[in-house]
């Protein structure tokens, strides 16, 4: 094979790959368009809002409750709502604090776990007791380290729930806040990047997973499918599995208005990061659907490295075989154009989601995603399955 033939083959492979990479980069703007559409719809003043029951789980988090609980209790919600704190046998001052708050807020209720919890994950039992004790059909699941970004948070969720009587699941958005350093940057970027993929997917098809810090779920749907019965011993991830198995295109919606965001304290420890990634590898094994989403995810993850390696291969082939460096210059320019275009699309989507720009570290972060996933998968492969389940006593 002569050199011109090699040159044409490289061009025929590289240019289509570049076009595909540009198309993938543009998809980061889908969430920006969805958020813009949600903002333009505005408040619906005449919409009858359903009763809402917020179920908040906590364990030894009295400091977080002091900061966040009033923000949940003082929502500007025209309809009826209650807040149920599902306490998982806290040993700190949580119960004393909750008792003092109940005197000020009559719509605050507390659900306590039995002293001895057997054969079920404590967080699943806490959620089950909280949901079963709820007065309203619409349940909003959240956590003690979360708080609403706006007094209109519950109203935005309620409007989305009320727009269609067939809706049974409404996905909200959660954003990390307060994190500093590499840990904060990594957590904020990875959650933002994942939400850019799975929230538009849920809007168009059905939910692949959910964020337990901001999730609306019908109590009747929970009871109809016997709650967490099928995965009662899993330590973590049962809520994701429940949403994945019960979500359909007809019963699922996404609430992306900026007022409907929940802010979550960024974990300071890298241990949280490792465990979250590890447990999700086990969680997704129990999903009922998601092959198409997994294909999109894999394509988005692998394309970053594939395009970079193709660029390096083109440059090296041109330098070692052709010696005219024309292909090298073209490949370098195309890679730079793609990197700039991808950064613009990604950061516009991130800005719409309330995040700061990730430039100039965005190329590095995107190249690290498959490495993070691979490391979590390898840890999952060597971890005994019993580590993901509650130990029976």
Shape annotation: elongated
Count of DSSP strands = 10
Number of helices: 13
> Based on the structure, what is the oligomeric state of the protein chains?
single chain
Strand content: 5-15%
Determine and state the CATH class of the largest domain.
Alpha Beta
Low-confidence stretches: none
Helical content class: 40-55%
Average pLDDT for all residues: 89
Structural domain count: 2
Strand order of the largest sheet: 3-2-1-4-8-6-9
Rg from Cα: 24 Å
Could you state the order of secondary-structure elements as H and E?
HHEHEHEHEEHEEHEHHEEHHHH
Kindly, what is the distance between the CA atoms of the first and last residues, rounded to a whole number of angstroms? 70 Å
The CATH superfamily of the largest domain is known as Spore Coat Polysaccharide Biosynthesis Protein SpsA, Chain A
Describe the structure.
This protein has 393 residues and is of the alpha/beta class. It folds into 2 domains: 3-28 and 293-380; 37-266, Spore Coat Polysaccharide Biosynthesis Protein SpsA, Chain A (Alpha-Beta Complex), CATH 3.90.550.10. The protein has 13 helices and 10 strands. It has helices at 3-26, 30-41, 62-73, 94-102, 122-132, 153-162, 181-204, 219-224, 238-246, 270-283, 291-322, 326-352, 362-382, and strands spanning 52-58, 81-87, 108-112, 138-143, 146-148, 169-171, 173-177, 215-218, 252-254, 261-265. The protein has a 7-stranded mixed beta sheet with strand order 3-2-1-4-8-6-9, with helices on both faces. A 3-stranded mixed beta sheet has the order 5-10-7. Strand 2 (81-87), helix 4 and strand 3 form a beta-alpha-beta unit. The longest helix has 32 residues, at 291-322. The chain is elongated and about 80 Å long. The termini are far apart. The mean pLDDT is 89.
């Amino acid at each position: 094979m002569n050199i011109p033939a090699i040159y044409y083959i490289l061009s025929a492979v590289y240019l289509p790959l570049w076009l595909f990479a540009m198309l993938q980069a543009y998809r980061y703007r889908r969430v920006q368009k969805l958020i813009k559409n949600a903002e333009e719809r505005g408040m619906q003043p005449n919409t009858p809002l359903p009763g809402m029951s917020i179920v908040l789980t906590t364990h030894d988090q009295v400091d977080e409750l002091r900061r966040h609980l009033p923000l949940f209790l003082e929502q500007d919600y025209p309809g009826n709502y209650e807040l149920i704190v599902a306490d998982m046998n806290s040993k700190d001052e949580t119960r004393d604090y909750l008792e003092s708050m109940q005197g000020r807020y009559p719509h605050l209720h507390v659900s306590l776990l039995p002293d001895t919890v057997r054969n079920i994950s404590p967080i699943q039992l806490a959620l089950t007791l909280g949901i079963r004790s709820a007065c309203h059909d619409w349940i909003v699941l959240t956590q003690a380290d979360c708080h609403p970004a706006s007094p209109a948070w519950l109203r935005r969720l309620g409007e989305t729930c009320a727009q269609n009587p067939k809706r049974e699941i409404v996905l909200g958005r959660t954003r990390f806040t307060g994190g500093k350093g590499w840990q904060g940057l990594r957590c904020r970027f990875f959650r933002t990047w994942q939400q850019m993929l799975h929230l538009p997917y849920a809007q168009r098809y059905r939910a692949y997973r959910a964020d337990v810090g901001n999730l609306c779920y019908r109590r009747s749907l929970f009871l109809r499918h016997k709650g967490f019965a099928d995965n009662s011993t899993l330590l973590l991830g049962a809520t994701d599995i429940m949403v994945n198995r019960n979500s359909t295109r007809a019963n699922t919606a996404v609430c992306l208005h900026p007022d409907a965001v929940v802010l979550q304290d960024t974990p300071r420890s890298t241990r949280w990061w490792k465990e979250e990634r590890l447990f999700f590898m086990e969680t997704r094994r129990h999903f009922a659907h998601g092959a198409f989403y997994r294909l999109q995810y894999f394509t988005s993850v692998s394309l970053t490295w594939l395009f970079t390696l193709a660029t390096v291969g083109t440059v090296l082939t041109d330098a070692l075989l052709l010696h005219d460096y024309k292909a090298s210059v073209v490949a370098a320019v195309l890679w730079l154009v793609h990197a700039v275009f991808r950064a613009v699309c990604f950061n516009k989507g991130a800005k719409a989601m309330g995040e700061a720009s990730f430039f100039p570290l965005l190329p590095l972060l995107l190249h690290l995603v498959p490495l993070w996933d691979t490391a979590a998968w390898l840890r999952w492969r060597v971890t005994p399955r019993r580590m993901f389940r509650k130990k029976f006593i």
